[in-house]
Design brief:
Number of helices of chain B: 0
Helix content of chain B: under 10%
Shape of chain A: flat
Number of strands of chain B: 12
Order of helices and strands of chain A: EEEHEEHH
Structural class of chain A: alpha+beta
Helix content of chain A: 25-40%
Number of helices of chain A: 3
Largest interface: A-B, 28 and 31 residues
Largest sheet of chain A: 3 strands, antiparallel
Strand content of chain A: 25-35%
Structural class of chain B: mainly beta
Oligomer: heterodimer
Chain lengths: 89, 152
């Protein structure tokens, strides 16, 4: 595929036994193996995230756009708030 | 920022993690995991393994903590990430937050490399991170995993 998000390879006793491009979901950060020629069978796109960003099928099914960076910032902000209140670690 | 290598090893378990990489309780930082190697160093055998990378919100109880090594010796600062291996009590796993899942034969060695911008990212939140697990472990043999990450 053009501009993959990664590459996976498995070596066995006979050498390379499996290789595949991967994408990393722009919404949930999941790594998805992309068999050759099947990009659009295992991933989808997101109009808001734009071209070059791929989304895994479960996230496509949600029908919403929450970029992973935004989700990370929410986790970190919640933790800072809890710390300010003296809760959590 | 600096890049580090974290190595984790254990006798395979279907219920307990191989290892975990979590942010420190104080001054937590993000880690961008961009390279994973995994396999078994035991005598070859045809057994099924399922390797998973799952998010967690605590570090659990590790059998031991390993010290991540800087990939560039000029980086003299130690990594702030906490790397545990051979857990006796699992990290608190986040349900349905499985970031990667790779079914493998015991004879296989697997490598995943992320393109820049497609890394597995852990939040800069105390004790949050990822656990490396083998929920299917066909044989209880020695297994190991190396994670390369960029600490930010």
């Amino acid at each position: 595929m053009r501009n993959p998000g990664g590459y996976a390879v498995a070596y066995g006793p006979g050498g390379v036994e499996f290789e595949s491009d991967t994408i990393t979901c722009a919404h949930c950060n999941k790594v998805v193996l992309v068999p050759h020629g099947k990009l659009y069978e295992v991933t989808g796109g997101c109009h808001k995230c734009g071209p070059g960003k791929f989304v895994c099928l479960p996230c496509v099914g949600l029908g919403t756009c929450t970029p992973f960076e935004k989700a990370l910032e929410a986790i970190e902000a919640r933790h800072r708030f809890e710390r300010a209140l003296g809760l959590g670690e | 920022m600096a890049k580090y290598s974290a190595i984790m090893q254990r006798t395979a378990s279907a219920s307990l993690s191989v290892g975990s990489l979590t942010a420190a309780a104080s001054s937590p930082r993000r880690a961008l995991i961009y390279d994973l190697f995994m396999g078994s160093e035991a005598a070859p055998g045809d057994f099924a393994f399922l390797w998973q990378v799952q998010r967690c919100t605590t570090a659990g109880t590790a059998g031991s903590n390993t010290t991540p090594q800087p990939l560039n010796p000029a980086d003299t600062l130690a990594s702030t990430m906490v790397c545990g291996q051979a857990h006796s009590a699992d990290p608190t796993l986040t349900a349905n937050a499985i970031e990667a899942s790779f079914p493998l034969n015991q004879r296989a060695t697997f490598r995943w490399v992320a393109a820049p911008g497609s890394e597995i990212v852990t939040p800069a939140t105390a004790s949050n991170g990822v656990a490396f697990r083998t929920p299917t472990a066909g044989a209880l043999v020695s297994i190991s995993l190396t994670a390369l990450y960029d600490e930010q």
